[in-house]
Specification:
411 residues; 17 helices; 0% strand
Length: 411
């Protein structure tokens, strides 16, 4: 037993572990770039003399481009090398961030955010795919958790840094931070790329990996024609809109309704990411205890209740545990979705994950646009509460779907 364990552990070389660490940094930067503008929306609205809905273009345009580009990077990574694409995409993000620093108008800032999104879109899905290619199957979940940790920390870092730097030095300094971050991580990836001597394809590959695979369009059509795949992709679209999309206005809501500084509002919302980290620490035990059906049901319910608290609390105190527990509940749901996404089409897993990511972030863009357009009509409180209610209902529905599928598979 111990001999077998040691053999498995030695299958991942120190060089591969270093590469995975750098990829986790890239995932951190990608997610931080997504959330860096959340807390600064009120300031951008003031500086450029526009409404909050118009200022929210820096989030919605980023999300649209990020989601659409997912479909492009999967085939590109397979053709020219995933690690190479990640490296150059990271460096490109540094250029986009530098343009954001120099932006003199909102349109210029939106354009810079578009360039950032086109680069950042490659980092998380291709990092997951590279790890999948390079790590034995019995250690895959553990290694993917490391890149997932980078992504979750990016939620915390982006919201926190965006609020702190906007309050202390001005919104441009948040993009100075992103310019340096992408530049440093991209340079480290470049050095690591030059040190890699053997292709990732030489590591243990799943059975059938050597077979000739159909093109991306053919694979995508095969996935989209599957009933279970369509359910997963639809669930991802709704999750992106009601979860990640509405999350973009949480900091603005706390700033406007409770009079909090952008720094404090951003710090409170950053607890959402810490809640996700808390789930990762205990997730293994919860999976055994509740199973997938319980995770999505309770996760959606927790997020729904916490969204109500955050939407209508008259004091910022209850917003602290509400934001933390909302993140915990959201990642209970989201990680179950990710697991099903990787399994919905085993014959075309890379394409399936790309479609899942695209649906998730296109949903986010839809959610940001809808939330921003409804703010002036019903207020931020009602929008946040509605987002939580949709996530709770989605949890109930997805739990029912999982239960029905489990029964069908047994029959």
């Amino acid at each position: 037993m111990s001999s077998s364990a040691s053999t498995t552990a030695s299958a991942i070389s120190p060089a591969t572990r270093r590469s995975i660490l750098l990829l986790s940094f890239a995932c951190f930067a990608s997610m931080a770039a997504q959330r860096i503008c959340d807390a600064m929306l009120p300031e951008l609205s003031r500086v450029f003399s526009v409404g909050l809905a118009q200022a929210a273009q820096v989030v919605s345009v980023f999300a649209i481009a990020y989601g659409a580009a997912q479909l492009f990077y999967g085939p590109l990574g397979d053709r020219v090398g995933k690690f190479r694409v990640i490296t150059f995409a990271t460096l490109a993000c540094s250029i986009g961030s530098a343009l954001a620093v120099a932006a003199g108008t909102l349109d210029m800032l939106v354009f810079a955010r578009l360039l950032m999104a086109l680069g950042a879109a490659a980092l998380i899905p291709l990092s997951m795919a590279w790890v999948g290619d390079s790590v034995p199957s019995d250690q895959l979940q553990e290694m993917l958790t490391r890149t997932g940790l980078g992504s979750t920390l990016g939620i915390v870092g982006g919201q926190l840094v965006g609020g702190l730097l906007t309050d202390a030095l001005g919104w441009r300094w948040a993009f100075v931070f992103m310019t340096v971050l992408f530049g440093v991580v991209g340079s480290l990836l470049w050095l690591n790329l030059r040190q890699q001597r053997t292709p990732a394809a030489k590591v243990e590959a799943p059975v059938g990996a050597t077979a000739v695979r159909p093109g991306f369009v053919t694979q995508a059509l095969l996935i989209l024609t599957g009933s279970w795949s369509r359910i997963i992709l639809l669930m991802a679209l709704v999750e992106g809109a009601a979860g990640f999309g509405v999350l973009a206005i949480w900091a603005s809501h706390l700033h406007r309704s409770l009079g909090l500084s952008l720094s404090l509002a951003g710090a409170i919302v950053a607890l959402f990411g810490l809640g996700g980290m808390l789930y990762m620490a205990v997730g293994r035990h919860l999976i055994r205890r509740f199973g997938q059906q319980g995770l999505v049901l309770f996760g959606g319910a927790i997020l729904g209740v916490c969204a109500l608290v955050l939407a209508y609390t008259p004091h910022w105190g209850p917003a602290l545990p509400a934001s933390l527990l909302a993140g915990f509940g959201f990642f209970m749901f989201h990680n179950t979705m990710q697991t099903n996404a990787t399994q919905m089409a085993p014959h075309a897993r890379g394409t399936a994950v790309s479609l899942f990511s695209s649906s998730l972030f296109l949903g986010q863009s839809i959610g940001v646009v809808l939330a921003a357009s409804l703010i002036d009509r019903v207020g931020t409180s009602a929008v946040i509460a509605a987002g939580g209610a949709v996530m709770a209902l989605e949890g109930v529905y997805f739990a029912w779907v999982l239960r029905r599928r489990e029964r069908m598979m047994k029959d």
